[in-house]
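Review session, final week

We close the course with one last complete record, chosen because it touches almost every idea we covered. It is Large ribosomal subunit protein bL9, a protein from Thermodesulfovibrio autotrophicus with 147 residues. Go through it on your own first, then we will talk.
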Amino acid sequence: MKVILKEDVHGLGKAGQIINVKDGYARNYLLPRGLVLIADEKNLKALEYQKKKIEEEAKKKRQDAESVAERLSALELTIKAKAGEDQKLFGSITAKDVAEALQNHGFSIDKRQINILEPIKRLGEHEVEVKLHSNVSAKLKINVVGE
């Protein structure tokens, strides 16, 4: 019997796949638990529609991420921090500090999306990576100035 997986099933496949299983397994286990749909005309058309819709949403999210990446790359962020002698900071600039500064500029970016390669512990210019999408990231210039 051909069925469409509604969700990931260990040993069978991932959601949206069309697979062939034994009739008894489908009727007695998969269907009662709501894990599959019978692969008939109606369900196949609904699956195709769903796939197209998901692809369009993914494309739109990627385009939005690319436009945000362009704006971030053009931005030079200034963060004020307390510093002592020889331009060393008291503490360091974290991803949370960068996210808050971006929030003040109108960006809503989570601190987990910000990748600081090495700790920012000195005044001056630094560069961090902001991961906006699975394939889209932006380099952000940060200028740390003393208070």
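Two points worth writing down before the exam:
Residues 67 and 112 are 20 Å apart (CA to CA).
The domain at 64-146 is CATH 3.10.430.100 (Ribosomal Protein L9; domain 2).
Good luck, everyone.
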